[in-house]
Write a structure and sequence with these properties.
alpha/beta; Nitrilase/N-carbamoyl-D-aminoacid amidohydrolase; 2 domains; six-stranded mixed sheet; 12 strands; 44% helix; globular
Length: 531
């Protein structure tokens, strides 16, 4: 292995860039649907050795000195995001006549842009690089900052953050109840990169020992938390039915199919309860499951009232329209409705965090002049974003915290209001992406939100994966991808959180400061030894 490390360190030019790409591609195996977190213990040591091999000419200017580490980081990121996000192109093939031209921009262009974040990570790390174990602290620091920025710059896209690779199963998710994802991103990179010290690190024992302690504590805390009694059901008990209709996206876009789609949801809602289950108190349909403007269709509300039994409540995804005033086009919202057993809309919440190019077109005036449109172009101007996300109160007093589609990937959006709810709600339509890694990755990230909030999650997905997840991220019941049907279960209760959002933010910045100090001290010692 030492010989392999030496060969990687000596690489240069195209060979070094290509190995960086392969290392990033390998790291994708740590994410769903594979969940082989051991792959990261190979890819990140390779990245360390590639950075070890960077030796810029002291006479070069700043930009020329930055280019080699930036190229390594970008190639690693390009491989990682290309391998992890290629399935996004499937959404463009649903309406291939209109959007197939954009496939290269989505499948190749987006990973190329996201790779710039990892280029920044390696540039930061290289500026603090040394020959000791402090260099993996520098790498962790660089990736921590890069992933933090990726979470909010340009509306944010923290999909497949490195930290998720360290949390492939509930046993390894429990740390998310103490520290935030940004901290886990940093510590995960430190642990994943630690094997590089075995063959090419001075002071390897200290770095390896710290990594071993972190990993052991991560797993041991998971054992401890899962060994505790499972959260007791809410009192009084509330039974949930999640409907998974498996409607093909092309069919959802066909106006002639709207009535049959609606009836399909109603038939699943009215299906007999499963063996041993109680009659559902709340029925949940996926995102945009109501295939027309509900407020323009009183007959549809009457049909819902016919199907719901006394005391039952329907929570369903729909498009909501709002009059914007004289002379202005109406505003459309991707929404969730609460409908009671009399067919009355008693609550609603609109999506706050919209998908760029999917639900709205950034720089709309400019890009439409170039002939571009969003995937939601059937609605003039696309969707509008809500300014706030309310906690929805159901008839009977239960409260749910709604997250529509990919809002569930934003850890920071599970704010203090989420703790006021009895359950998190994630409704989505992943039919756009077909039977690819996308729906599995989406589900995994949503699952972590329940752990962070100490609050169970109800998830309804058109084609899957639908589930009820308890406050530890454990699956209470699940309906896999492309399985049409319903799941009925009693909603589990909440768990107390050990830290609040403010404390987790403080821990992140404290960890950032510690890693920076370790890297700087190691760097200063390295320079002293060189001189």
């Amino acid at each position: 292995m030492e010989r392999l490390a030496g060969r990687i360190i000596l690489l240069s030019g195209v060979s070094r860039t290509f190995v960086g790409f392969l290392a990033g591609l390998l790291a994708v195996l740590a994410q769903p649907p594979f969940g082989i977190f051991a792959a990261a213990f190979v890819s990140f040591p390779v990245l360390v050795w590639l950075i070890d091999g960077v030796a810029p000419n002291p006479g070069d200017g700043v930009l020329r000195r930055l280019m080699p580490p930036a190229a390594i980081g970008w190639s690693f990121g390009f491989g990682y995001f290309l391998g992890g996000l290629w399935w996004l192109g499937n959404a463009l093939l649903v309406e291939a006549d209109a959007f197939a031209w954009a496939l290269p921009l989505t499948v190749v262009g987006l990973p190329a842009v996201l790779g710039l974040f990892y280029a920044l990570a390696v540039v930061i790390a290289r500026g603090l690089w040394s020959d000791g174990w402090g260099r993996i602290a520098a790498l962790a620091l660089g990736f921590g900052i890069a992933e933090w920025l990726r979470g909010f710059l340009f509306t944010g896209f923290p999909w497949n953050a490195i930290g998720y690779a360290a949390m492939p199963m509930p046993l390894m998710m429990q740390s998310a109840s103490v520290v935030n994802l940004s901290t886990i991103n940093m510590l995960a990179v430190f642990v994943f990169a630690a094997p590089a010290l075995i063959w090419t690190g001075k002071g390897a024992r200290a770095g390896l020992a710290i990594a071993a302690v972190l990993f052991t504590a991560h797993v041991a805390f998971g054992f401890y938390r899962l060994a505790q009694p499972a959260p007791a059901p809410l009192q009084p008990e509330m039974t949930v039915r999640v409907v998974q209709p498996v409607i093909d996206q092309a069919k959802k876009l066909d106006d002639r199919e709207r009535a049959s789609i609606f009836e399909d949801h109603l038939s699943l809602t009215a299906a007999p309860v499963q063996d041993g289950a109680k009659r559902p108190d709340i029925v949940v349909w996926p995102e945009t499951s109501i295939p027309f403007i509900l407020t323009d269709n009183p007959d549809a509300l009457a049909r819902i009232a016919d199907v719901l039994q006394d005391g039952q409540v329907l929570v369903a995804g729909a498009v909501r329209v709002e009059d914007a005033g004289a002379g202005l086009p109406p505003r459309y919202y991707n929404s969730v409705y609460v409908i009671d057993d009399r067919g009355q809309i008693v609550g609603a919440a609109d999506k706050v965090h919209l998908v760029p190019f999917g639900e709205y077109l950034p720089f709309e005036d400019l890009l439409t002049s170039w002939g571009l449109s969003s995937v939601a172009a059937s609605m003039p101007g696309g969707f509008s974003a809500a300014s706030t996300r309310p906690v929805l109160t159901l008839p009977g007093g239960r409260r749910i915290y709604p997250m529509i589609c990919y809002e569930a990937i934003f850890a920071d959006e599970v704010d203090g209001n989420a703790r006021l709810a009895d359950a998190l709600l994630n409704i989505t339509n992943d039919a756009w992406f077909g039977d690819t890694p996308g729906p599995r990755q989406h589900f995994h990230q949503a699952q972590l939100r329940a752990v962070e909030a100490g609050t169970p999650m109800i998830r309804a997905a058109n084609t899957g994966i639908s589930a009820v997840v308890d406050a530890r991220g454990v699956l209470v019941v699940v309906l896999g991808y492309n399985y049409r049907g319903v799941i009925d279960t009693i909603l589990p209760g909440k768990l107390p959180t050990l830290t609040n959002i403010a404390t987790r933010s403080h821990i992140f910045w404290l960890t950032t400061g510690i890693l920076f100090l370790v890297a700087v001290i190691s760097r200063l010692g390295f320079n002293i030894r060189k001189n």
